[in-house]
Amino acid sequence: MTKNLIRTALYGMLALLFFSSCKSNKELIYLQNLPEGETIQAKPFSTDSYQLKPGDNLFIQVSSINPEVNQLFNPAMGSGYSGGMAQQFGSVSSQYLNGYLIDQNGNIELPIIGAVGASNKTLAQVKKTVEQKVNEYFKEATVTVKLLNFKIVVMGEVSKPGVIYNYNNTCTLLEAISQAGGTTDYSRLKKVVVIRESLSGTTNIEIDLTDKAFLNSTAYYLQPNDIVYVWPDKYKNTRLNASLYSLILSSISTLIVVLKFMSE
């Protein structure tokens, strides 16, 4: 019986060694089947084509030869343009306070002009609508419209999970993961999920980072408010607790040897 217990303990230690061993290099390599020189046409996305929705926050600037009009729509212009602009939009909280938030009815509220429909429109369409409204009151005014809340949440097995604020027109999945410090040794590259909200509901898009096919996925170019979740390796807990399990098995083996010695 003692021999059986020792054999069982040895088998347990071997199994622990197998499951807690480091992952192979292949398991940590992205795009494993992408030959050198091959071209893949990704499905492009930029904020220019993004359909706005309630909760989105917009930067709107109205410029005119009339300084009073500029001051009315752009208070930052009256306090030193660059300094005032940095103060009004230099942080996430100030962007929230000073941007034009699309309400649940799909509108933004502008001085004098009033409510302007923005939901389910592109930035270019909102720009055109605002220009038309402004020019009813002030001639030769130009309008700039930009999206302030192009943020992405990266969670799971990355080195620095958190919220990423993007100030370019595009952001790819690889860029977002890189900004989050890259994937950890416990990541499951074959299972990355992008959670995307739209006016019609929430969609989950599963990605395999080891397969070149994800470059042609609708989730390769991320959209505002996307959530990226990198799944952990299924043996993560075993690997993390390997030292504890090894100590327990070692103690059991020692106890068995001692008991065997005492019984002889």
From TrEMBL:
Protein name as annotated: Polysaccharide export outer membrane protein
PANTHER family for this protein: POLYSACCHARIDE EXPORT PROTEIN GFCE-RELATED
Residue stretches making up the SLBB domain: 151-230
Pfam families named among the record's database cross-references: Poly_export, SLBB_2
Protein's UniProt keywords contain Signal: yes
Origin: domain of life: Bacteria
Compartment list: Cell outer membrane
Polysaccharide export protein N-terminal domain location: 47-147
Biological process terms in GO annotation: monoatomic ion transport
Keyword line: Cell outer membrane, Ion transport, Lipoprotein, Membrane, Palmitate, Polysaccharide transport, Porin, Signal, Sugar transport, Transmembrane, Transmembrane beta strand, Transmembrane helix, Transport
Lineage of the species this protein comes from: Bacteria, Pseudomonadati, Bacteroidota, Bacteroidia, Marinilabiliales
Any GO CC annotation of this UniProt entry: pore complex
GO MF annotation, one: polysaccharide transmembrane transporter activity
This protein's record includes keyword Membrane: yes
Residues annotated as signal peptide: none
Transmembrane segments annotated in the record for this chain: 242-262
Recorded topology in the membrane: Multi-pass membrane protein
Naturally occurring in which organism (per UniProt): Mangrovibacterium marinum
Gene3D superfamilies xrefs: Outer membrane lipoprotein wza domain like (3.10.560.10), wza like domain (3.30.1950.10)
Record-linked InterPro entries: Poly_export, Poly_export_N, SLBB_dom
Family: Belongs to the BexD/CtrA/VexA family.
